[in-house]
Design a protein that fits this description.
Blueprint (H helix, E strand, L loop, with lengths): L5 E6 L1 H4 L6 H13 L3 E7 L3 H14 L2 E5 L10 H8 L4 E3 L1 H13 L13 E3 L3 E3 L8 E7 L2 E6 L3 H18 L6 E9 L4 H7 L10 E7 L2 E10 L2 H19 L3 E4 L4 H11 L4 E5 L5 H7 L8 E6 L3 H8 L3 H6 L5 H15 L3 E7 L14 E7 L4 E7 L6 H22 L5
Parallel strand pairs: 1-2, 1-3, 3-8, 13-14, 13-15
Antiparallel strand pairs: 4-5, 6-7, 7-8, 9-11, 9-12, 10-11, 15-16, 16-17
Length: 422
């Protein structure tokens, strides 16, 4: 069994500029954890041989498995293979087998192979081929030094995924890299802060196996519980009791796990209570309805929504009082309540939710600043509202995101605490 850690080096100036999301690093990190391979470092470097060589030198000092993605194509800025070979002082050799494969793939597509594609057939002398059935750029499997393993993959995610599962995983297992698994479960919270939740669960943050780590993403606070064990079942047994305790501490703030959203949480409760929902939106422009319908099976409880940007739509379709629009304005408590009640009545549902607010960047005033949002909730017997202030320094999309999630969370908490009102 090999001991040591892995490192990921992603090559591409487009990654540094933010033009492309680095999903390959995320995929590889999860795959390494699944194999139980320790992974301590990731590097992103542009299409520059000198900087890539420096990244390789640093990686060789601290890691025993170095995984490269990107830079294997036929263009001049694809420099990964040549830089690796040069760093280890090994010549590039044209691989006849790879060249024949590239020619065959061009022929299958009824295309003529250009001269620059021959570049992809030049590999470091002594390196093994990491086959690519989905594209023309192969990778390499290589041990240029005793105890150091090199793997290269194209930057195209589809090609990387196929090559990893087909060749890389069996290779790593055969070489003795796989050492059980590292499995994680993420608990999700809304209505609390990262620092506040961390203070409540501080003792758990000191655990060694499983470990617990807090972080935030798009307003959702998360606790990641990670366990290293010989099998998935053993890892789950380590995680289960810790997750149970953390959920108890979080209480109603904890709405789900892993890929679950607030939309999932609301949907489950609506199904359990055989209740239906409709939404009326102004500043979120249909985003709330999109979150609800992103959940498979939402047609069981979601009847539809009305996007009422203009006041005439609020009046004609939702029954909002013209006088209240004049007196209080479209962004106000009375209008939010009437929007919620109106869409519930119009679409004949058990619940109605509305959102009206000022998402910015313009349109605010000292009395009604950017970030002011009113959320209305209505059922068959009661209508009420919540006033929120999401801050003028935040972006328009942040305010819209917070509005959507907060609206769903208000309904979730209501359904949990008072289901008999349906």
């Amino acid at each position: 069994m090999i001991t040591g850690s892995a490192e990921i080096i992603c090559v591409g100036t487009e990654l540094l500029l933010g033009d492309i999301l680095n999903s390959n690093a995320q995929y590889l990190a999860k795959q390494l954890a699944h194999l139980g391979i320790s992974h301590h470092y990731q590097t992103v470097v542009g299409d520059n041989p000198l900087r890539l060589a420096r990244a390789i030198a640093i990686a060789c000092e601290r890691s025993r498995l170095i995984i490269f993605t990107g830079g294997l194509g036929p263009t001049p800025d694809d420099i990964t293979t040549a830089t690796i070979a040069d760093f280890f002082g090994v010549p590039l050799v044209e691989n006849v087998e790879v060249l024949a494969d590239i020619k065959a793939k061009f022929a299958q597509r009824d295309r003529v192979m250009t001269d620059n594609n021959r570049k992809q057939a030049w590999l470091p002398e002594g390196a093994d081929i990491l086959p690519n059935t989905q594209g023309t750029a192969p990778g390499i499997l290589w041990q240029p030094r005793p105890g150091l393993h090199i793997m290269t993959f194209p930057g195209v995610p589809r090609e990387l995924y196929s090559m990893w599962q087909t060749t890389a995983v069996p290779y790593l297992q055969d070489q003795g890299w796989s050492n059980g698994i590292i499995h994680s479960r993420t608990l999700k919270f809304w209505g609390t802060s990262e620092s506040g939740l961390a203070a409540k669960v501080n003792d758990f943050l000191q655990l060694e196996n499983p470990t617990v780590a807090p972080y935030a993403s798009d307003g959702v606070i998360k606790l990641r519980i990670s366990a290293k064990a010989d099998s998935l079942n053993a890892a789950e047994q380590l995680i289960d009791p810790v997750a149970k305790q953390l959920k108890a501490i979080g209480g109603v703030d904890c709405f789900g796990e892993d890929d679950e959203t607030l939309g999932n949480a609301v949907g489950r409760l609506l199904i359990e209570q055989a209740a239906t929902l409709a939404v009326a939106e102004s500043c979120t422009g249909g985003g709330l309805g999109a979150m609800v319908t992103a959940v498979p099976g939402s047609s069981q409880y979601f009847m539809g929504g009305i996007i009422s940007y203009d006041n005439t739509v609020k009046e004609r379709l939702l029954g909002v009082s013209p006088q209240d629009l004049v007196t209080h304005g479209a962004v106000s408590a009375p209008v939010a309540e009437q929007m919620a009640g109106g869409v519930r009545a119009r679409l004949r549902t058990d619940w109605g939710i509305s959102i009206t607010g000022i998402a910015g960047p313009g349109g605010g005033s000292p009395q009604k600043p950017v970030g002011l949002v009113f959320i209305g909730v209505a059922n068959q017997t009661t209508t009420w509202h919540i006033e929120c202030r999401f801050g003028h320094r935040k972006s328009r999309e942040w305010i819209r995101l917070m509005s959507r999630n907060t609206a769903l969370d208000i309904l979730r908490r209501t359904l949990l605490s008072n289901p008999q009102t349906v």
